[in-house]
Amino acid sequence: MIRLVRPALPAELAARLPELTEEIGNATHRTRTARALWKRAVVRRNVHAPLRRLLEDMAPGYQRCMYCGDSQGTDIDHFEPLSLNPLRTFDWLNHLLACSTCNSNLKRDRFPVAEDGTPLLVDPTTEDPFDHLLLTLSLGVYVARTEKGEATIDVCGLNRPVLTQGRVHARRVVLMCLSRWTAGRARDAADEMREAVLTVRGQPFADVCQAMLRLARSPGADLVFEETPWALAVLRDEELRTQLLA
């Protein structure tokens, strides 16, 4: 999970969503009405489609799930579930792109809250997931830094084996690309350098590269990269960082 920037809605869509919310608010059975509206054919065509395009553009890599970062996002997920707060069904700030596994099989209607009522799930569009989650690069495992991180790992199944194994593989890919980028710069081969960057940016598990870039500047960086000390200097290179963080 990485920090994402949510764009503003186009004017026509921004005007349409409050109308749908008002229709839900005026209904006797709000949850039932919200579900019916969300499934309505004209809404799928005129609301779902543009919402999905916006979410795909802001998702990591090639339209990856905003929770696990592995599978392609197939669903518009309601961060705060429709069943718990139907008035947020058409709230743009409540929409994330998720894969069917994260959305339908794991998260579903689970939405833990703290004693003060604030959400215990990390919303990557309003906060930095790295404040709550620490990625152990060698194992591909997330360790919770906060109560919110712990709840997010649990609800989204962030440490299920297919994800931890995928992150370990992603780390290998990043390291190979760092080596290729370095070799390309030594030969002044701009195309080779560009290809290495595009490979990293396009692969699943964008959180692995993001974690590597951050940890390279952390106080314990030498220990984290003890097995690959050569990579530390590359990850600290401003030219490369600018390209990978763009």
From TrEMBL:
Gene3D superfamilies with a match to the protein in the record: 1.10.30.50
Location of the HNH nuclease domain: 50-104
Any GO MF annotation of the entry: nucleic acid binding
Chain coiled-coil ranges: none
One Pfam family of this chain: HNH
The name this protein goes by in its record: HNH nuclease domain-containing protein
